[in-house]
Amino acid sequence: MDSPAPKFVPLVALTAFPVGSARAFEVGSATVALFHTAEGLFAMDDHCTHSGGPLSEGDVRDGVVTCRWHGAAFRLATGRSAGVILCRPTRTYAVQVRAGWVEVEEP
Description:
- By secondary structure, the chain is mainly β.
- Helices cover 0% and strands 43% of the residues.
- It has a single domain (8-105), classed as Rieske [2Fe-2S] iron-sulphur domain (Rieske Iron-sulfur Protein, 3-layer Sandwich).
- It is built from no helices and ten strands.
- The mean pLDDT is 95.
């Protein structure tokens, strides 16, 4: 049996979210961190699985976001741990651009 297609929620106009942007959005009952890098748009849960810090306020470099609270790092594309501090992965969400709006998969 096929799983249903994900539902997407519009978050922000692409023109208002240039490369280098990161921001948290409330999507249903979840807080989702959205990142726009030279490699593309990425979304994940906004809380660090190590300490609960806001990933949307982390440092982004080479496809990895590093939490400012204690330095735990996560790969933007997969949510997997990418640093010295090993943590469980954070949930990632599909992202698409439609009609000029950045949309994220509904959690």
